[in-house]
Amino acid sequence: MIEPEVPPTIEIHSGYSIQLAASSRNVEWRSDNPSVATVSSTGLVTAKGKGKAVIYTYASEEKQDIVCYLDVYPRRNILFYIGADDNLINSDTPGKINQIRSGWQPDKGELLIYADRQGEGAFLLRVNNIPDANGYYGLDTLAVYGAENSADAAMLTRSINKMISDYPADSYGMIFFSHASGWLPQGALNRPRSMVIDGGNEMEYTDFASAIPDGQFDFIIFEACLMADVMSMYELRNKTEYILASSAEIVSPGFHDIYKEKIMNLFDT
Q1: Are residues 32 and 82 located together in one domain of the fold?
Q2: Rounded distance, CA 163 to CA 169, Å?
Q3: Is residue 4 part of a domain?
Q4: Is there a domain that residue 160 lies in?
Q5: Where are the extended beta strands (E) located within 85-183?
Q6: For position 258, what pLDDT does the model report?
Q7: Distance between CA 250 and CA 227 in Å, rounded?
Q8: How many domains does the chain have?
Q9: Which value, to the nearest 10 degrees, does the dihedral of the CA atoms of residues 50, 55, 60, 63 take?
């Protein structure tokens, strides 16, 4: 007995498209749930929003063939904010960016990188879908800011607003890489209750929180020291659903080796 062929289930993120093919040209393409996915007369499927849909061809009431089932996931964009105008952070930055580029896949959302490096100034970058000879996906330069203070909360706000306006998505996440001292009391460290060290400038934790719109992020990941204390988490209570942070110091190379293997997991959570 020959088992009937089961139509495949295709996973796709909203905002992306796939081209399907039919066994006959004399059919109409249809979707049973256009709010989740639409299909053109040529079989181009575009995911619209989270949910499930069935894509099928229609020749008559008696002749309807399911081509595939769709599981559409929310589109998520991520901002990687790097305050690297400091000797230690500056030296670690290129390797981390390369690790992310080598592990990233261009089918689930956008990845934007704000990096402020000693001697280079600040840039806003976007990982594109064109791999180079080393297997790293390329970088598009969206903005060149020159020398500026990445410890100024206005720079963080500008980066967030740029991502939201130019690369809208269903949800957003942020990775934060710099020095930090969490909510330690005055005198415990030379730089208490601060994050992002840019030369002699620091961003106060309250300013960091104020720079983020309420409910903006699904998660914030801190590759920064001493951020998993109650007061720091409370300050961000209205900004994000989840926080990944360390209560201890994070020594170099930090999350360097994790990015290549795990960066795409952040687009699926």
Answers
A1: no
A2: 9
A3: no
A4: yes
A5: 111-117, 121-131, 137-146, 171-177
A6: 86
A7: 10
A8: 2
A9: -130
**What mean pLDDT, rounded, does the chain reach?**
83
Residue 219 and residue 263 in contact, taking contact as beta carbons nearer than 8 Å = no
The answer, yes or no, to whether residue 69 has pLDDT greater than 90, is yes
**Burial label, 46 (beta-carbon count in 10 A; 0-12, 13-18, 19+):** middle
* Among candidate residues 210, 218, 223, the one with its CA nearest the CA of residue 242: 218
Can you give the residue range of the structural domain that contains 167?
Answer: 76-267
Angle value at C-alpha 254, between 250 and 260, nearest 5 degrees = 155
On whether both 69 and 81 belong to a single domain, the answer is no
Specify the higher pLDDT residue, 16 or 5: 16
Q: Are residues 175 and 259 in the same domain?
A: yes
Query: Which span out of 102-116, 152-166, 221-235 was modeled with the highest average pLDDT?
Result: 152-166
**What are the distances in angstroms from CA 134 to CA 91, 98, 99, 127, 248?**
20, 10, 11, 15, 35
Residue 80 · residue 114 · CB < 8 Å: yes
pLDDT in tens, 111-164: 999 998 777 889 999 999 898 888 889 999 999 998 888 788 899 999 999 999
Q: What are the tens digits of pLDDT across the range 234-260? A: 889 999 999 998 877 776 777 888 888
Please identify, among 50, 73, 96, the residue that sits at the C-terminal boundary of a domain. Answer: 73
Co-location of 105 and 215 in the same domain: yes
- The pair phi, psi for residue 67, each rounded to 5°, is -90, -40
Q: Return the structure tokens found at 118.
A: 């000693």
Do residue 219 and residue 162 come from a single domain?
Answer: yes
pTM of the model: 0.77
How many Å from the N-terminal Cα to the C-terminal Cα in the chain? 41
Rg for the chain (alpha carbons), in Å? 22
